[in-house]
Design goal:
The protein is mainly α. The chain is 62% helix and 0% strand. It is built from 6 helices and no strands. It starts with a helix and ends in an 11-residue tail after the last helix.
Length: 133
């Protein structure tokens, strides 16, 4: 009995501390994955960095001969901040750290979601010089 209780508690602790992996069959909307990449890599404010991330993913997808979404899923695996994986289309999600004010960050998240959605339709300006390698 004690062994089973210990195993259950260990699983519970690690389940809440380990970010969920991004699976190849992930049904998360592409705009949410892209917005998570923007926030996880460049934060909330740097639009130019968001554009560079978009083009980094797009160029790498072209070089590898895969879709943008497939490359985005591969890129997202490297973003390991727990709260970023919890960001959802309808808000900050349950993994949001309590010490950050939701009233401040929810509008920022929604703004980044809009940027990602627009970028997927209209391709942002490319701030990078040169051709993909």
């Amino acid at each position: 009995m004690r062994k089973h209780l210990l195993a259950a508690l260990t699983a519970l602790v690690f389940a809440t501390c380990t970010p969920a992996p991004v699976a190849a069959d992930d049904d998360t909307p592409t705009r949410v994955l892209l917005a998570r990449a923007y926030v996880g890599e460049a934060g909330w404010y740097s639009r130019r960095d968001h554009q560079a991330i978009y083009w980094s993913i797009a160029n790498r997808a072209a070089v590898r001969g895969v879709t943008f979404r497939e490359q985005l899923l591969a890129y997202a695996k490297g973003i390991d901040r727990g709260y970023v994986a919890g960001l959802q289309e309808d808000g900050l999600g349950e993994a949001w750290p309590e010490h950050y004010d939701r009233e401040v960050y929810d509008p920022l998240w929604r703004r980044v979601l809009v940027f990602a959605a627009v970028d997927l339709v209209f391709e942002p300006e490319n701030p990078c010089d040169g051709d993909p390698e």
